[in-house]
Design brief:
Length: 419
């Protein structure tokens, strides 16, 4: 491959390229270390690997493990410096902590953190690119990591993994050119302990690389006959890459007939892309039902999943909660000027008619776009973020008369079959 590349180059660079191949060096301006996969792992790069954690708040070279104060000081009192003195941070109630402030160019490649699983709606992540004052990413930690009900669920997807017992990981590629700043706000009254690590690389960023954005929304009760808006007001060029929904059903029976719609570049009444149903969009079918148990079947795969169905032993009852994700990695939805995304809440009523639902829906939309981006809607208040306890309704018991009539009907049908 190296000789073939040389022969395809201009005559003026042939000798230089051959020399580079012979010496085993990469040409100037070679692989920047950003598009990592199994195939790119052997490629050498001049990119610089760095990491920020409570053991190295700045990510500076040769500055890790130097702490003499920290949450592990008592445990390390007989060992001293370099022995896990500062493995985590305490974030006071109603305060904001800066997790990272990085000078570019470069890209964040992986994030790991351990928020208290029962408070993931009360910790708000914000990312700011290249000195902007309005965040490009703003979402509760749990929802950003596709785990939005303050309960653990294991997620095995390409860009997001959630591992026991509160190991939140993301692998979204997040390039920046001048600066990347990440904060977490604790809107609870009480302090929390957080372990975290942000792995990034300092390297040249391609001119056509856009910035990652993520926006959270929630409606406690969707107004009757209205669609839920996942994303609106996007201006610029980019591609939509993912959806997370935390959905609470307020009506009995099946709830997922609604279509998702993508309005691209000036679409008004009718969208360019229209799905066929909620479970269809999340790459399932026929109500996510296990055909043998007739209960919801949770699943988690590289590009889509329904890892949460709470409570798991009941189906199609008010109060049922779901967590669903769909990543458009192989099929990003590209837009040139603007983008709007909506989904219908739709079930069934008598005589085979659709029933518009009034469910509780929260979402995170993920997309890449050029800057500047349009300002996000006002973030929900603490009260609007709180999750109320589930009220599980048991199926109504059939009366003795109905049971008797049911047995008689079955007996008549049996006689007819035999006859």
């Amino acid at each position: 491959m190296c000789l073939r590349t040389c022969l395809s180059s201009m005559v003026g660079s042939l000798l230089w390229c051959s020399l580079a191949c012979a010496q085993g060096t990469a040409p100037a301006g070679g692989f920047n270390g950003l598009e990592m996969n199994l195939g790119s792992l052997p490629r050498l790069s001049s990119a610089k690997s760095r990491s920020i954690s409570a053991e190295n708040f700045t990510g500076e070279k040769g500055k890790g493990g130097m702490a003499t104060e920290g949450t592990g000081k008592h445990a390390a009192r007989e060992l001293g410096q370099t022995w896990k003195v500062s493995p985590s941070i305490d974030i006071k109630g109603k305060s904001t902590f800066t997790l990272a402030d990085i000078q570019g160019p470069g890209a964040i490649q992986q994030i790991w953190m351990t928020p208290p699983i029962h408070k993931t709606r009360l910790l708000i992540l914000r990312f700011y690119w290249d000195g902007e004052t309005e965040p490009s990413i703003e979402a509760p930690i749990g929802d950003f990591f596709a785990c939005g009900w303050n309960k653990f669920c294991q997620i095995n997807s390409l860009p997001v993994c959630v591992n026991p017992s509160s190991g939140f990981n993301c692998y979204w590629n997040m390039p920046f050119r001048k600066r990347a700043r990440i904060t977490v706000e604790n809107i609870d009254d009480k302090p929390i302990v957080l372990y975290y690590q942000i792995n990034y690389t300092l390297t040249q960023v391609p001119a056509d690389a856009a910035y990652l954005h993520a926006q959270f929304r929630r409606v406690h009760r969707l107004p009757a006959k209205q669609v839920y808006t996942i994303l609106d007001g996007v201006r610029g060029r980019g591609q939509y890459v993912g959806t997370y929904l935390a959905w609470e059903v307020h009506s009995p029976d099946w709830w997922g007939e609604g279509e998702i719609k993508f309005y691209l570049d000036g679409d008004q009444k009718f969208p360019t892309i229209c799905g066929t149903g909620t479970e269809d969009y999340f790459c399932g079918s026929y109500g996510f039902e296990n055909p043998e148990t007739h209960l919801y079947q949770t699943f988690s795969s590289p590009y889509s999943g329904m890892p949460q169905a709470l409570p798991p032993k009941v189906i199609n009852l008010p109060g049922q909660r779901f967590g669903l994700y769909r990543w458009h990695i192989a099929d990003p939805i590209r837009f040139e000027k603007d983008l709007r995304v909506t989904i219908q809440a739709l079930g069934w009523k008598s005589k085979g008619r659709y029933l518009p639902l009034e469910d509780d829906i929260a979402s995170v939309a993920y997309w890449y776009q050029t800057e500047p981006h349009a300002r996000f809607p006002a973030f929900p208040s603490k009260q609007d973020l709180l999750i109320k306890p589930i009220k599980v309704e048991k199926p109504a018991k059939k009366s003795a008369a109905k049971k008797t009539e049911g047995k008689k009907k079955a007996a008549r049908e049996d006689v007819q079959k035999k006859g």
